[in-house]
């Protein structure tokens, strides 16, 4: 475990006893690990393509669709490759017409230089999210996932994520899942380590690990 990761979780445990209990029980998960099986090969464009394909479907199906896209292209997808393939051919791989259109729109933004997706490290969190959501098909949640897994930003709290809000409900023994605004407000107390808090909350939905 890196020193910065250890420090982040130690700080969260000091900020919030309930989070401290989660650290004791579930460990210190790496919040930046992208569980894509190496599919994106370090490409931000390919990673966002996978995020788009994975919207509202299972990870297994998302991987299947992405693998078909990669196989149709013959390599890790680039914006130029996707534009050359075209919306109809992408749809024929098994995805919806809307998602195929979203991929084309993303590729167009990247190929035209409107979105420099491979070089977003210098942008603030807010500016990076705004640049991404300007692309039709990329919502706030997808943008936040991208900032976590591709840009490795330490202070992102995707309050719109249902799983995350369910974890908050369990953590505090609430009768109902908190609303997005309430979850966002709760997360504010964990700045500047909200990404780590989110990773811990997601981990708490799983079986406790042996430490």
UniProtKB/TrEMBL annotation:
<dbReference type="GO" id="GO:0005737">
    <property type="term" value="C:cytoplasm"/>
</dbReference>
<dbReference type="GO" id="GO:0032993">
    <property type="term" value="C:protein-DNA complex"/>
</dbReference>
<protein>
    <recommendedName>
        <fullName>DNA-3-methyladenine glycosylase II</fullName>
        <ecNumber>3.2.2.21</ecNumber>
    </recommendedName>
</protein>
<dbReference type="GO" id="GO:0008725">
    <property type="term" value="F:DNA-3-methyladenine glycosylase activity"/>
</dbReference>
<dbReference type="GO" id="GO:0006307">
    <property type="term" value="P:DNA alkylation repair"/>
</dbReference>
<dbReference type="Pfam" id="PF00730">
    <property type="entry name" value="HhH-GPD"/>
</dbReference>
<dbReference type="InterPro" id="IPR003265">
    <property type="entry name" value="HhH-GPD_domain"/>
</dbReference>
<keyword id="KW-0234">DNA repair</keyword>
<keyword id="KW-0227">DNA damage</keyword>
<dbReference type="InterPro" id="IPR011257">
    <property type="entry name" value="DNA_glycosylase"/>
</dbReference>
<dbReference type="GO" id="GO:0032131">
    <property type="term" value="F:alkylated DNA binding"/>
</dbReference>
<dbReference type="GO" id="GO:0043916">
    <property type="term" value="F:DNA-7-methylguanine glycosylase activity"/>
</dbReference>
<dbReference type="GO" id="GO:0006285">
    <property type="term" value="P:base-excision repair, AP site formation"/>
</dbReference>
<dbReference type="InterPro" id="IPR051912">
    <property type="entry name" value="Alkylbase_DNA_Glycosylase/TA"/>
</dbReference>
<feature type="domain" description="HhH-GPD">
    <location>
        <begin position="53"/>
        <end position="206"/>
    </location>
</feature>
């Amino acid at each position: 475990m890196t020193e910065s990761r250890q420090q982040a979780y130690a700080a969260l445990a000091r900020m919030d006893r309930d989070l401290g209990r989660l650290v004791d029980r579930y460990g210190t998960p790496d919040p930046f690990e992208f569980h894509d099986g190496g599919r994106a090969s370090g490409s931000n464009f390919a990673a966002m393509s996978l995020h788009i394909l994975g919207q509202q479907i299972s990870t297994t199906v998302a991987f299947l669709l992405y693998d078909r896209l990669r196989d149709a292209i013959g390599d890790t997808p680039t914006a130029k490759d996707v534009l050359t393939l075209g919306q109809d051919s992408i749809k024929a791989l098994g995805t919806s017409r809307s998602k195929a259109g979203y991929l084309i729109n993303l590729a167009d933004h990247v190929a035209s230089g409107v979105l420099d997706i491979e070089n977003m490290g210098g942008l603030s969190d807010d500016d990076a999210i705004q640049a991404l959501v300007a692309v039709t098909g990329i919502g706030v949640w997808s943008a936040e996932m991208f900032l976590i897994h591709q840009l490795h930003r330490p202070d992102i709290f995707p309050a719109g994520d249902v799983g995350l809000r369910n974890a908050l409900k369990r953590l505090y023994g609430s009768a109902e899942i908190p609303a997005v605004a309430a979850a966002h407000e709760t997360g504010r107390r964990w700045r500047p380590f909200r990404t780590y808090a989110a990773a811990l909350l997601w981990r708490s939905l799983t079986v406790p690990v042996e430490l």
